[in-house]
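Hello Y.,

Per our agreement to keep a running log of every chain we model this quarter, I'm adding this entry. I've kept the format consistent with earlier entries: sequence first, then predicted structure.
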Amino acid sequence: MPEITDTFRAGGTHPAPRDLAATPAPGILAAPDILAWSCPAPLRDQPRVVMGHGGGGALSAELVQHIFAPAFGGEVLAQLGDAATVSLGGARLAFSTDSFVVRPLFFPGGSIGDLAVNGTVNDLAMSGARAAYLSCGFILEEGVEMAVLARVAEALGAAARTAGVEVATGDTKVVEAGHGDGIYINTAGIGLIPAGVDLRPQRVVPGDVVIVSGPIGVHGVAIMSVREGLEFGTGIESDCAALGGLVDTMLAVTPDLHVLRDPTRGGLAAALNEIAAASGTGVVLQERSIPVPPAVANACAILGLDPMYVANEGKLVAFVPREHAEAVLAAMRSHPLGAEACVIGEAVSEHPGMVVARTGLGGTRVVDLPIGEQLPRIC
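Predicted structure for the entry above:
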């Protein structure tokens, strides 16, 4: 597992990736200008909602940019982070909401109840806040078994206790049989942001070190394995977990972390693209340094998936100032949820807004924002 000093030159950033900036030899056609590429068909020309609109990729961004943001307005909404940062009575609060429609309701390593807590708790943690209170809304389909509902509720309560958060209020609605899929859950949460903590992509600067807290792609593959009845030779369990404790450990080293994200829908690729676009920096990844478990790699190879785009529910990616990166990495590895944390790349001044990966063969590939979602209904 490479250390920071093994992966990057000390005190500098990478030159522009060779494939993007090379000067062609005489008689060789110039490389295409990737920065000038555009989609031939505007994504927002979709006349109806499709599954990809919920995937956390380009189609989701279109909904927010062209429908929701103009309709709702407001400076707070314009932050477009995992959680909104608001001030109330002199306190800085993180406020977030999320809805969970995963199918099946129970999967290796968790359930929709665990997701409903951990997903919102983690959104708050990405702002540096420890969740204090959650609301919980259940939308139930007529005919769902009470025993199933009880299992989900018990799992949700247990996850809340583990995360140190209280479910303070809630609501229940029932829809007619055939108009739902058993159980949908919405949770919203609030938490206090400590003084001196300012986590947002606009703080990212060239030279920041990119750290991921552990192996990627586990949750999405775990869901797919049970949904489709697939076996990959070894059990794959979701990484669903509350990350508040890990974030506290990182902030104890320094409050000067620049940005944190939990790469859920759209996977690591979507999270990095969003940060690159918002910060106006480029991101260079070392593809061989990205931790992909063999079982996930094998499953993705069989299914034709890229692990970079597969959802996670218990991992985070951090952009850390270079001078603090070694200490933060060591602190992450001291925590159970960060034991396999590693450096995977850095922010650069070249190709702003674009994420590229240096391959093991010495080439460079663009890691673009996904259009929709490879695996729908995974959270």
